[in-house]
Amino acid sequence: MEVVGQGAAATLSSLQIHFIQNMIHETLEDFRDVCHRDIVNLQVEMVRQFYIQLNEIHGLVEKYSVNESLVEEVEKLREENRRLKTNY
Predict the structure, then answer these.
(1) Domain count, the chain
(2) Which residues does UniProt call coiled coil (predicted)?
(3) 17: which residues sit within 8 A by CB, 6+ positions away?
(4) What integer pLDDT is reported at residue 73 of this predicted model?
(5) Is 12 in contact with 4 (CB distance < 8 Å)?
(6) How far is the CA of 24 from the CAs of 2, 27, 38, in angstroms?
(7) DSSP E strands: which ranges in the chain?
(8) What average pLDDT values come out for the chain (88 residues) when binned by 10 residues?
């Protein structure tokens, strides 16, 4: 068995070092998976919020855009006003 380390600290065998490396690797892998899942959830939430904003913007555009039927009505009323002014 190979022994690593010197001095007053406890020495570690290659098996112990390998075990610790595997433990660190598994922990980092779990952390990476959690980070990836969090990022995906954030992206999904952003898409959901953008969709909500898109619907709100569409509603506002429809509410404040020029309505063709109202434009026609205004033109008819203007014409009627002109006729009434010339007759009276």
Answers:
(1) 1
(2) 60-87
(3) 4
(4) 92
(5) yes
(6) 21, 5, 21
(7) 3-4, 12-13
(8) 50 91 98 98 98 97 86 93 89
User: 3-state class of 1 per DSSP?
Assistant: coil
- Answer whether 2's CB lies under 8 Å from 11's CB: no
Tokens representing residue 70 in the block = 């109202």
Q: Which residues contact 1 (CB under 8 A, 6 or more apart)?
A: 13, 14, 15
Range of the domain at 13: 3-87
Which amino acid, 71?
Answer: V
Answer yes or no: are the C-beta atoms of 18 and 9 closer than 8 Å: no
Structure tokens at 5: 């380390």
pTM: 0.58
Instruction: Note whether 16 and 5 are within 8 A (CB).
Output: no
